[in-house]
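Preliminary data (for renewal application), magnesium ion complex.
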Amino acid sequence: MMAQFQEVSNQSSLHPKPAGYVLAYGTAGFRANAKHLDHIMFRTGLVAALCSKKTEATVGVMVTASHNPEEDNGLKMIGPMGEMVAPTWEGYATLLANAEQEDLLTALKDILEKEAINMSQEASVFVGKDTRSSSASFSQAVMDGVSALGGRSKDYGLVTTPQLHYMVRCQNTQGQYGEATVEGYYKKLCQAFIHLTKNASNCTDDQKHLSVDGANGVGALKVREMESHLKKELHLSVFNDGTTGKLNHQCGADFLKVQQKPPTGIKMNPGDRCCSLDGDADRLVYYFTDSEGQFHLLDGDKIATLIIIFMKELLTQAGLNLNIAVVQTAYANGSSTRYLEDTVKITVKCTKTGVKHLHRAAQEFDIAVYFEANGHGTVLFSEAAEQKIQQLAENPSINDERKRAALLLQHTIDVINQTVGDGISDMLLIEAILAIKSMTIQQWDAIYSDLPNRQLKVKVSDRKIIVTTDAERRAVSPDGLQETIDSLVKKYKLARAFARPSGTENIVRIYAEAETQESADALAHEVALAVYNLAGGVGGEPKPLH
Ligand code: 16G
Ligand code: MG
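Predicted structure:
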């Protein structure tokens, strides 16, 4: 034990913490300008090794700052089932990240005691990285942390975030979920995709074509790598593949969602089906321009709607009675929620922003499609649901329609990455659904019309003054804010608005939607002013998000 602490101490001095620097493990891990992060990488390596010892399983650390600018970096920890790591471990990561150099060993020993960790237990950590220039030395720093505690790391090199989540799940389920290699990932997903599209009648080459904006990130490389496994069942044109453009700059899923316009660097003819990944490929949005040149964005809400309609039809055809739902956040467009509840007649659950909240809520159903409007999401199947589907598919005495539906459900399960939202896997699922349903992107877009909406951000001296409830849709503090928002919302038709403190930046975010864009803009501005006045706004008038 003493020797190990000595090793941590020696290694840690090679990754020194700038005195006084403080950073918390936020909604999606640590994220900041790369110049501040070396010590955090090393120390999270230590935390990951401890988490692995405690859970007696492989865990993961992904070095990425997703859709942030190239100059930033960060990391996300991955738990044994490929899910986001439990909150306790996020807390420990924050604790170690912020311990001053001389206090590191004490902080480490505290965790060991609290968790009663057996130090002779082996530790195994999977490590991956995105394409940022700082990511190579950072993933090395994570591995240094792991080895300082005697743990083993496996370096997957350049992978998407969801790919690393997938590897961890495969490893800990002894191959039941798939093979823990990038090749294994492509094989499983693409085979399922090919099986699914066999059920599509005569797709033309045009219908098989998709333009992909790779955000100049790792997703572009991985889509290219995957292409040969698709056996020409899908023709991909990859733009923003990182050869010339800058990561996430004027491209990628987040840029599109916020700016509501096409990325630079993509060739788009009217009606062409296009999609964008983000910098670590865990988000996906679709879009097209119509013959009048108008841009149409199909966001996470539209993706969730298409998937749940498909799943519901299959379950009906299969004669399976399962408890299904869609999980959304407060940002989901009101039209999508209304359509899902009133027309599709499906349970819709709303949770706080952040993937882990949606994921947890989705686990309460047999099948749940969860998506954030920003394009992060997936489908979860309970073990019982998977078993029922499998039993049905293997049942020799059912009719052809039920058999076909059961097999389609099985292949759908296999094309999905259930560990976390996965832009590439979601893309394959959407492409398969459109092909099977012989549906164009225009028809998909027309399922319901989005209510016009506007997002704004307001700088305040302390965003914690805003406290929310009801999945962030209502403010309980400061006094009078919710009453003010309520009276503002009443002025407009089909209106809704909320203010919530960001989990990733020191700001308050405002969302408003209404019948017209003018009303949504006006309402957002009025709510922003109310927040500015009641919650200690700083730095002049509230500004639009972009
Ligand atoms: C992070 C979250 C994303 C959420 C966003 C909200 C993960 C993997 N990512 O990017 O789900 O929508 O934060 O940011 O959980 P905000 O709190 O600043 O609005
Ligand atoms: Mg991302």
